[in-house]
Amino acid sequence: MSRSSVLFRPHTGGVDAASFERQRLSLFERYGLLAQSRWVVDGLGRRIYVAERVGTGRPVVLVHGGLSQGGDWCLMAGRLSGPVVIPDGPGWGLTYPIDHRRVNFREASAQWLGVVLDGLGLEQVDLVGLSAGGFVAAAFAFEQPERVKHLVLIGALPGLQRELPLQLRLMGHPVVGRLMLRMKITDPEVNRNRVFATLVAQTGAPPA
Q: What are the pLDDT digits (tens) for 148-197?
């Protein structure tokens, strides 16, 4: 089954899981985060991968966006103080595969993140969600608000308004979406205007 199918295999770019794990931990360390691997097992016996830096204080949990994995956070995570938790979402990185056609995404997202926090023994966290990870974070915060001290959504459009932009809806089409993913945009300004303009009110520099 291909990576473009709905049932995703672990998203390791063709690298075996052990090598992928070592390389990613090395990448985190390169940018200042000395993390260790943790595994959380849900009620069905499925394994969830977490990169964790232990420490004192309230943990920051970083939830990556869609079509990606926890390595999204390599440039930012090392700049944070205290405990940091970076899980791979279902179907990505080293976490178990999932058929997204057979789940209620909001309910499954909240449940999955709850399993991660319970498995690590975390009562309350600061929660940061990137892109579709913002939907996951918001879904959990709605279900268990007492466990989220701060909620930060970065470019997290899904769920924040009634409809997705046309481009994102087209990406979900089984034929058009695959064609769009094959497009190669070499001009960063074109990419910014086509994609990120839908995520922020002002695409230029923020006011001083």
A: 999 999 877 655 555 666 766 777 678 887 787 777 767 777 766 766 66
Task: Enter the pTM of the model.
Answer: 0.77
State the pLDDT at residue 116: 98
State how far the Cα of 170 lies from the Cα of 67, in Å rounded to an integer.
Answer: 15
Across the strands, what pairs with 127? 61, 151
Greatest extent of the chain over all pairs of C-alpha atoms, in Å: 51
Domains of the chain in sequence order? 17-160 (3.40.50.1820), 162-202 (no CATH)
H or E, element range at 105: helix 105-120
CB contact at 8 A, 95 and 17: no
| Phi–psi pair at 62, nearest 5 degrees | -105, 120
